Amino acid sequence: MNALKNKxxxxxxxxxxxxxxxxxxxxxxxxxxxxxxxxYYNDKGEKKTDTQWHTxxxxxxxxxxxxxxxxxxxxxxIEGKLTHRTYDDRNGDKRYITEVIVSDVLLFGK
Length: 110
Prior knowledge:
It contains one helix and six strands, in the order ββββαββ. The chain is mainly beta. It has a single domain (about 10-105), classed as CATH 2.40.50.140.
């Protein structure tokens, strides 16, 4: 049952080109925004689409795959864990971030 703890799976489209950061020693971090869409019909029978935006980050070889093959609009499937963190911005205001740390990525299409 431990394999099911804090596991996130998303299939969506890249909302931006990956943002790459390289740290000392060559360690690579990639940040990506993924859009997921849910289509439904409201009470009036009108078709509606609800889009959710998800921040995802990846390290190491997974980051390299995303950097090389994922561009804005590309459909991808990711698996990882949900994390929350805080930081103080330039004005001293506390900011909160929820993101998925990617462990696996699956590419669709060409």
